[in-house]
Specification:
single chain, 2 domains, binds FE2/S2 (inorganic) cluster, about 20% helix, five-stranded antiparallel beta sheet, 17 strands, binds fe (ii) ion, Rieske Iron-sulfur Protein, Naphthalene 1,2-dioxygenase Alpha Subunit, Chain A, domain 1, globular, alpha+beta
């Protein structure tokens, strides 16, 4: 007996317009999004291992430089990369060694402790009207989730809300995973073009022959069974083709499967968790992939992908890293080319906005989310 309610079709009942074309290249749009979206939401800064003790990491979120460091107690802290004296950058490199105790401004040597408190004004000798306590570093909200470090520049950060819930990955041993492979790629497209491509599978049969072979439902241009035309409800079957267990070149898991997964999670073959605007996590039965999206300019977006494994999986005899990373690397390259193709055509003065198909319901939701954020800014 099936206690689950039937899964309803998510298909749209109409074909809405997309965002106006200028949303994808206009510098004004880009600036508004930086402030209304990228400086308001939780943005992935990296896997926790990217922030070892004794180093300061430099990140840029919504055009704002942020430093992340580990205090003596091991806790991570983040601050604006801005000295309270006359505003100089405290770090100029992605990583600068520091003594683990003080962050010293390279300009006039004001120094701050790892809690951001001003402890020295260097050769400057303040008068009584100056209170060090009023001149600490500007803090940035930081949250660790499943071994991933998120930052939020808002004074009053929103709830951390992955689309599948904060507990979506609770059955995976996320805290124990290590980064086994990392790839970075700059795409000539707007960041929203990337997310739109992520949010539909109409392109799968044409763009991803290998992926569509691994995930049979993708051959029909949909992401899951309930999106099939004429879906009557019921239970969706296994996502991967018979015999395949994971997203690898040969479909075999790269090592022992994670122990704590439910039968549904194993049958799903992939569990996607999306945290707009900067990241998504794909959890498989044997490894996890984390992708970060960073807008560099209206038509330039950096993509960073990390493959996470249990240390014992990587250390096991016969572990074949290339068999794992090769598959998603191929898919990412195919998607990247599609995104650049999309961006290139947007510049026609005749193209004012696209029209979405019913299967593009997730793009429609994404557009609504973007527009709502921009409107809330006013
Ligand atoms: S600007 Fe940093 S010490 Fe002067
Ligand atoms: Fe794709």
């Amino acid at each position: 007996m099936n206690a689950q309610p039937p899964i309803a079709s998510p298909l749209l009942d109409h074909c809405p317009e997309g965002l106006p074309a200028e949303a994808y290249f206009d510098p004004g749009w880009f600036r508004r999004e930086q402030s209304a979206i990228w400086r308001k939401n939780w943005v992935l800064a990296g896997h926790h291992s990217a922030f070892p003790a004794g180093e300061v990491a430099l990140r840029k979120i919504g055009g704002v430089e942020v430093i992340v460091l580990r205090g003596p107690d091991g806790a991570l802290k983040a601050f604006h990369n801005t000295c309270r004296h006359r505003g100089a950058a405290l770090c100029t490199e992605t990583r600068a060694d520091f003594n683990g105790k003080l962050i010293r401004c390279p300009y006039h040597a004001w120094a701050y402790d790892t809690g951001g408190r001003l402890v020295s004004t260097g050769f400057g000798t303040p008068t009584k009207d100056f209170d060090k306590r009023d001149h600490g570093l500007f803090p940035v909200a930081l949250k660790e989730w499943n071994g991933l470090v998120y930052l939020c520049l808002a004074d009053d950060p929103p709830a951390f809300a992955p689309d599948m819930g904060v507990d979506a990955l609770d059955n995976w041993p996320m805290e124990r995973l290590v980064v086994g492979h990392r790839a970075e790629k700059d795409l000539a497209c707007n960041w929203k073009v990337f997310w739109e491509n992520y949010n539909e599978c109409l392109h799968c049969p044409g763009i991803h022959p290998e992926l569509s072979d691994l995930v049979p439902v993708y051959r029909e241009g949909v992401m899951s069974e309930p999106e099939r035309r004429g879906w009557q409800g019921g239970e969706a079957g296994p996502a991967l083709k018979t015999g395949a267990r994971s997203w690898t070149l040969d479909g075999a898991p790269c090592g022992a499967e994670f122990e704590g997964l439910s039968a549904e999670e194993r049958a799903a073959g992939h569990t996607f968790v999306t945290i707009y605007p900067s990241s998504f996590v794909v959890a498989h039965v044997d490894y996890v992939r984390v992708v970060t999206v960073t807008p560099l300019a209206p038509e330039q977006t950096r993509l960073t992908a990390e493959w996470l494994f249990l240390p014992e999986t990587m250390g096991a005899p016969g572990f074949d890293l290339e068999n794992v990373t090769g598959f998603a690397t191929l898919v990412i390259a195919q998607d990247g080319a599609a995104c650049e193709l999309n961006q290139r055509g947007l510049h026609s003065p005749k193209f004012t906005a696209g029209r979405l198909m019913p299967q593009e319901f997730d793009i429609h939701r994404f557009h609504a989310w973007v527009l709502e954020a921009l409107q809330a800014q006013h």
